[in-house]
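Justification of resources, computational component.

The compute hours requested in this renewal are based largely on the per-chain cost of generating structure records like the one below. Each record pairs the submitted sequence with a full structure-token output. That output is archived, and it is also reused by downstream analysis tasks.
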Amino acid sequence: MVRYSDRLLATSQVTDYEGAVNGLQVGNSGRISRLAAAVDASLATARLAVEAGANLLIVHHGLFWGGSHPWTGKRLDLIRLLLDHDLAVYSSHLPLDCHPRLGNNVLLCAALGFRKRRPFFFEKGRPLGFQGSARLTRDELAARLARAVGSPPRLLPCGPAVCRRIGVVTGGAGGELKLAAGEGIDTFVTGEGPHWTFPLAEELGVNVFYAGHYATETFGVKALAAELSRKFRVPWTFVDHPSGL
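The structure output for this chain reads:
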């Protein structure tokens, strides 16, 4: 499963942020009977995966962002839980954002009904997102986003009332608003961003939709788990542990 996932996602070819550690992060005995998918690797999601009977947890945000030591307190509880229940962890960050079939960005665009898409938001040497052409009012786009992610987005209504060139980058890309706007969009859809992006959006004349970091990044792990389930004939489940952010 690991070899197949690494080939499918071109893991070794995608440059990521330091600490992402894409691929198998925690091994187990090697036997897999059920998969679990989650956005984040944490003690809470590991417990949910164990409750679901899974022995491989697929995540978008892995275990090793920043310092990962010492292994004490809750960190010790986490590694003990993984080892005691033979639960492996596989993580895919940017490879799962930019994948043309299973990626967060392409699947969110599909959920929004953007059939004509082109590469957008070049970062780490490759496009991570997609730009869609449409003719939607801000209210129409907000309604589509709400249906796609399950909750109403936060709107910074600083651009045109009718959205025509819409850039989509899931997760926490709000801080790169200027970079996104430089590619000619009038509306930017992402997960979250800092406060100062509001006056910047006004200055740039761009609408910004913040649809939730967590909510916009449930797509990829579900798609990867479903692909592995089909390929290897093992059941899978999504363990939902939303942050609200």
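The two ends are 31 Å apart (CA to CA). The first helix runs from residue 2 to 9.
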